[in-house]
Design brief:
The complex is a heterodimer. By secondary structure, chain A is an all-beta fold. Chain A is built from no helices and eleven strands. Classes of the chains: A mainly beta, B mainly beta.
């Protein structure tokens, strides 16, 4: 029963390059979330996706960042033209289908994260 | 808007002692869920315990229990019989419905000594 998978675990890019981070949710989970953690801080929400749909991207910077969750394959977080300020840990989480309103939450299970370093 | 406040940047405890990590929250939504996650030095985020706003009983999971005081808007994590492996950063988080973002606090670093 594999958990949430993320790769690569560590990624080094030079300024101006592109970074692609991948996330495979837990089996049976159809919801994927991306979070960013800057050093010494808590996680900040970026984007929430279901298969082939972006549901909420309110936490994602408007420029250079994009995310997708295709019908087949992992979810991808893409950062174009990276800058030093993009250096952070990027976590993916997954949860099963939305539950009824009375039980309002599904636990989000996190992957091990991708540590992005921009030189 | 929802908010989580963790006022203890660091806590120190001896092995086998109990420790309480504080978490207060702010939300205008009557329906919400509270979570605690553990982040060891290796960096992964490990789910510990969940409390729903409508739950009548305080949540418990093994050595973890949640002291949920709704009127005070607090959801403190209690770890009984601390172990060296409990040394980690602990995050409290809130969400108001399934399929929405978790809002995290800044975390508390717990150090357990022998």
């Amino acid at each position: 029963n594999a958990g949430v998978m993320q790769n690569p675990r560590h990624l080094v890019r030079r300024r101006g390059q592109e970074a692609r981070l991948r996330c495979s949710p837990m089996k049976g989970h159809s919801h994927v979330y991306w979070y960013r953690q800057l050093p010494e801080e808590g996680l900040k929400f970026m984007v929430y996706l279901q298969k082939e749909n972006i549901i909420d991207e309110s936490g994602m910077p408007k420029e250079r960042f994009s995310a997708e969750f295709p019908k087949e394959g992992p979810s991808i977080l893409r950062i174009q033209q990276v800058v030093r300020g993009d250096s952070a840990a990027y976590f993916c989480a997954s949860s099963p289908s939305r539950q009824a309103r009375r039980n309002p939450t599904d636990t989000q299970y996190f992957g091990p994260g991708t540590r992005l370093t921009v030189l | 808007a929802q908010k989580i406040t963790q006022t203890q940047p660091g806590m120190f405890v001896q092995e086998k002692e109990a420790v309480t990590l504080d978490c207060t929250y702010d939300t205008s939504d009557p329906s919400y869920g509270l979570f605690w996650y553990k982040q060891p030095s290796s960096g992964e985020m490990i789910f510990l315990i969940y409390q729903g706003s409508y739950d009548q009983q305080n949540a418990t999971e093994g050595r973890y229990s949640l002291n949920f005081q709704k009127a005070r808007k607090s959801a403190n994590l209690v770890i009984s019989a601390s172990q060296l492996g409990d040394s980690a950063m602990y995050f409290c988080a809130i969400t108001h419905q399934a399929g929405t973002a978790l809002i995290f606090g800044k975390g508390t670093t717990l150090s357990v000594s022998s």
